[in-house]
From TrEMBL:
Residues 234-450 form the Histidine kinase domain. Coiled coil: none annotated. This is histidine kinase. One of its GO terms (molecular function) is ATP binding. It is found in: Cell membrane. InterPro entries: 2C_sensor_his_kinase (IPR050980), HAMP_dom (IPR003660), HATPase_C_sf (IPR036890), HATPase_dom (IPR003594), His_kinase_dom (IPR005467), HisK_dim/P_dom (IPR003661), HisK_dim/P_sf (IPR036097), Sig_transdc_His_kin-like_C (IPR004358). Keywords: ATP-binding, Cell membrane, Kinase, Membrane, Nucleotide-binding, Phosphoprotein, Transferase, Transmembrane, Transmembrane helix. Pfam families: HAMP (PF00672), HATPase_c (PF02518), HisKA (PF00512).
Amino acid sequence: MRSVFVKIYLAFMVTALVTTAVTITMAAYYRQWSNDSVNLIAPTGGYISAAELILQQGGEPLLLEWLLRFERHPSVNAYVFDAQGLSLLPNPPATVLDYAFSADSYEAQVNPLSRSEILVKAPIESVQGQVYLLVVEFMHPLVVFNLPAYLGWGLLASFLIFAVWSLILSGYLTRPVRYMQQTVRAFANGDWRARMDERSLRRRDELGELSREFNHMAGYIERLIHDQKQLVSDVSHELRSPLARSTVALELARLDAAPDQEEHLDRIELETQRLNEMIEDLLNMAKLDTQQDHSHWGDVHCDNVLQQVVEDARFEHPDSVLNLTLSDGLPPVHGDRKLLKSAFENITRNALLHTVEGTSVDISVRLKNDGLRIVIRDHGPGVPEDKLDDLLRPFVRAETARERLGSGHRGFGLGLAIAHRVVSHHRGRISLKNHRDGGLMVSIQLPLMA
């Protein structure tokens, strides 16, 4: 059981039900631990006087009528025995008979847990001098109320009352935790402006303090990330000018260069071109991190985009084999066609660079879990398991990739990082996994409605 809400809710419910059970149990002993017994015995003097007066005025018939009316009382009964020990009412309870014929004078008997909670007896005398015995029985409330039904309805009422109250109280206590969970998830997914709501911040307990500390931490991290992105963007822009001047100087140097210097100048041109490409990738990443305008987005048919990517890749790598498998009736996704195309191109080029010679790059597109699933797989050496997640970060490459890439290949560890930013920008997910038969498999899940 991992839910804090469920734990708190069950704790309240168990506490409430235990309290109810203890209260009901204590009610059974209530008269034994209080002065209610004395208070109940006190009015029996009136019952005795009334019974004797009725007996003297109307004899046994009137007394019997009084007893029959008395029987309808829910919690008090009266019984009269004649000189021969016969009851005027048929079938008196055994507890009443035992008490009536007991030898212990006329003292009241208190039995807090039996059917007869209190028994009081006294002699009454007729006009003719005949002596009768009057027994007054006070029924135990739990017997009058039907103990099983009393316990059942009491527990049911307590359960319903405390269930609603515990639900409200548990929701109140855990609401900031649930909201914080949503906020942390949004923050982890790249929404750096996610913050706790004002209602949680106004709380004066530990949860309110935690909410305020989270907002402080989130603000600090947001500033750090913003400053880092701004630094990358500024440095990339500043590097453009000296590189442009280097390109001009390189062309001027070619005019006066000797034939044996051409090789070195070509090398300088290649490295300058690679620096320009890297700066362009960095600027694209910085743009993806700051771009929030989706007004230009539209329906993008990923199958058509991938067909174009495959055609371009086959033109650039005529000796490579690319297999594209498309499911029928693929719906479009909402997004930026240019960005998605760049992401697919980066992953496909990366796969072409690392697949073993004579093997293919396999691309498939199908519907899965209310979204579009695109899988691009190469047949290369794969990547160590502990490096898979790191490949989605900028400037990270597997050691096998560094060995395979020659000096003429473009590879700065930015291709997968850019693709990751593009997919995240479209509210999608990208994951890397080594295929069981060898090679790296890149899976992209795009929602149909981003």
